[in-house]
Amino acid sequence: MNIGLSYDVVRFEEKALLQSINNLGHKPLPIHVVAREFWINEGNGLDADFIIQRCVSYNRAAATTAIFERSGYIVVNNTQVLRNSADKLLTSCLLARKNVPTPVTAIALNRETALKAARKIGFPVVVKPISGSWGRNIARAFDEQSLLDILELRENMPNPQMKIHYIQEHVDKPERDIRAFYVWGEVPVAIYRVSKNWKTNTALGGKAQPCPVTDELADLVIKAGDAVGGGVLGVDVLESREKGMLVNEVNGVVEFRNTVLVTGYDLPTKIVEKSVEVLKR
Amino acid sequence: MPSLNCPVCGASVEVPNDALPGELFECGDCGAQLEYFMDEKNTASLKVAEEVAEDWGQ
Ligand SMILES: Nc1ncnc2c1ncn2[C@@H]1O[C@H](COP(=O)(O)OP(=O)(O)OP(=O)(O)O)[C@@H](O)[C@H]1O
Ligand SMILES: [Zn+2]
């Protein structure tokens, strides 16, 4: 098959995917999206059976996925799945609808209602931007005053989306969380991200360690992945001392460098193989 | 391996033959983050890499 790889910046992941496409006997078609024009009313001359979306910029990923789909290409992940996973409010709604266990979450559209919601949840609470990654602008408030301070800062930010307050129970977790991979309904591999920082993101220094994929974990991750629409996803899981495993969020353009490094599992090949298998039908 | 000039300090930076447009390299002399880039005439060069933006991530 001819497999497109839509990207802006080349990281380990993009190189590894291109390598896997080659190794499996397919033809890779790198598409450096920032270096080309896209025409809405014409085809874009790509000879691809499907396209893997890898843009690190969400807006570039969303824009080019829409255009590729408009031109009749299948994109992994598709527009719907990209949006469902990039928008934490949407993700939470979809997970709740399918009864996937998650931290208790409330949305409030101004400071006063946010404070009321936080009192009901109980402190500390976590406040997150609706869209964002790598732990950016996620804050934890231990009391009412610090929550109000955080909300004031948010409301003074230029992005109007920051006035949608996403407030969540703080999950008392061990010094780690779990990143599990969902590949078309399977959960081939997972890692712990271990950190003294309450934000365990590897982008913030969290250390990756292999994590066994138990039946319980696989079950939860499959439910979460199905709920946002399937494809290839990273599902983040928090281990609550009282409630057990809770799905924190779902990622639609997954990073897996540290996973491959610490587990030795060839995830890029799994992603290509499984995508070919599912999409050739 | 072709070597290209760092646009910041002018030092030469080695780039592998299979480099892709958009691939990042660090200048060994000044530490600048550089992006491999190909113009319309297929001439390769390095430019200063983009800053991480608000919407970057997974
Ligand atoms: N409700 C919570 N309780 C405890 N810890 C949390 C909670 N929410 C987030 N965290 C911690 O903060 C980190 C960042 O949160 P989250 O994954 O929601 O943000 P993100 O910016 O979307 O990160 P990613 O790069 O994974 O997309 C998590 O990995 C987790 O360690
Ligand atoms: Zn230099």
TrEMBL record, chain B:
Pfam families: Zn_ribbon_LysW. InterPro entries: LysW. CDD domains: LysW (cd13946). Transmembrane segments: none annotated. NCBIfam families: carrier_LysW_Arch. This is Sulfonate ABC transporter.
